[in-house]
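User: Quick sanity check before I run a bigger batch. Here is a single chain. Can you write out its predicted 3D structure?
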Amino acid sequence: MTKIAVDTADYAAHTDDVVPPGHSIARMRDEAHALVPLECERKRLIHREDSVRQQSDAFRGIRTRLLEMGGEGNFVTLVVAVSPRSGASFVARNLATAFAFDEAKTSLLVDCNLRYPNQHKAFGVEPSTGGLIDFLEHPSRGIASIMYHTGVPRLRLIPAGKSRENGGEYFSSFRMRAALDSLRCRYSDRYLFLDGPPVKGSPDARILADLADVVVLVAGYGRDTPAAISQAVANFDPAKFAGVVFNQTP
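Assistant: Done. Predicted structure follows.
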């Protein structure tokens, strides 16, 4: 299990469309095949048992930091890496899992790494009805059709869908912004997590940051230099920046 440490350095919804707190949770209680702890560990997911207590507490600590920044309402968190293979996808899915630990909250993880999408593989999900890009290209299919069970109670996944070299045209579109607004506003207890591409080598992370309320940067411990981390941090609005997660693989 990877070790981490945190350094704190449908379409647009109308008001009358908002569902009261707890209604989305009631609809998500039918987890037919919830993952057992051993399955979680095989998928490199945190859980509530003592065998991964250190890792779970680390992600709970990040959750506390984000809730302090986000205030009383729900919010959209972007998780991106300084450079490829620094572990941002691992951090994103476990942070979403940590929020789903709270029985008063639900999580939605959206895979926005269009070049190297892997969240569906990590959860063992077969995206038979497509993913994010399929919806953005054909919104008439409905966004509910691309939301998948993960095996983690109260956590759903929207996979990336079709692989794309450049996601900027999709992420800067009205459809993308409207979709996120709808997903966020429909349920007041739903917290959204965007698993974005690395800052290095692509403008997509900066584009996605405009859609997020909070940004978490993941640095590979011993991989990304202090200079590279500082350069990556400079891409984001300081008011949105939550901190750097140092991800270390044994």
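Residues 217 and 244 are 5 Å apart (CA to CA).

User: Great, the batch can go ahead then.
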